[in-house]
Specification:
Shape: elongated
Number of domains: 2
CATH architecture of the largest domain: 3-Layer(aba) Sandwich
Number of helices: 6
CATH topology of the largest domain: D-Maltodextrin-Binding Protein, domain 2
Strand order of the largest sheet: 2-1-3
CATH class of the largest domain: Alpha Beta
Structural class: mainly alpha
Mean pLDDT: 88
Distance between the termini: 44 Å
Order of helices and strands: EHEHEHHHH
């Protein structure tokens, strides 16, 4: 597939990145493409979060972004973006399988998927597929929570105890302003970075969720 890039008419591909780690990976890929004379050239554009990158693409400031599956849905519905590629995990694509793993401290002998009321949750982010939608939808399916009027974040936030679910109070994920503040009370960063749906919040993402579990 990379051979097709030699024929790409686009002079520069502007890749929107969300963190210093993504920016470094983008820089390495840019250099690797340059050494192999693969076109187009890559330019690394920074965004504060996925929503800002989606907006930049719609405005013509950037061209592409790597996102979580749930954000891909948001990108299509609200920003008129389309997916170009998807990760292949070696499962039957027609079965639409999505695996998510929940972990607890070794010393916690009481937590399980049927006993999370009032528990502290360390999620990757609000609206994240594996870190939010899968577990919350499961709780809804087994009747641990009862969602009315589509207020799933509000209901889940009232079910859990003080937690860190980055982005819970961000406007794009809390437009009705009904998400409980308890979803942010265990987050770490300060000021405008506090509970933000970006790597500026120290407990954001998979690594941040593990950090939250051990340090929060």
């Amino acid at each position: 597939m990379l051979l097709r890039l030699y024929e790409c008419p686009l002079r520069v591909l502007r890749w929107c990145v969300l963190s210093i780690y993504e920016k470094e990976k983008c820089r390495l890929m840019k250099n690797a493409f340059g050494r192999k004379n693969i076109k187009p050239d890559i330019d690394c554009v920074s965004g504060k979060n996925a929503i800002e990158c989606m907006s930049k693409i719609r405005q013509g400031i950037a061209d592409i972004i790597t996102v979580d599956a749930a954000d891909a849905y948001r990108a299509q519905r609200y920003y008129q973006l389309v997916p170009l590629a998807a990760a292949d995990y070696g499962v039957d694509m027609e079965s639409n399988v999505m695996y998510a793993v929940a972990v607890a401290k070794r010393t916690d002998l009481t937590s399980n998927l049927w006993n999370l009321r009032g528990k502290t949750i360390c999620s990757t982010a609000i609206g994240d597929l594996a870190g939010w939608h899968v577990p919350v939808d499961y709780l809804n399916a087994i009747k641990e929570i009862y969602v009315t009027n589509c207020h799933i974040n509000k209901v889940a936030g009232e079910y859990f105890g003080q937690s860190c679910v980055p982005g819970s109070l961000d406007y794009d994920y809390n437009k009705l302003k009904t998400n409980p503040r308890a979803l942010c009370l265990r987050c770490y960063s300060k000021g405008s970075d506090y509970c933000s749906r970006s790597h500026r919040e120290m407990f954001y993402g998979s690594s941040g969720a593990f950090r939250c579990l051990t340090e929060g």
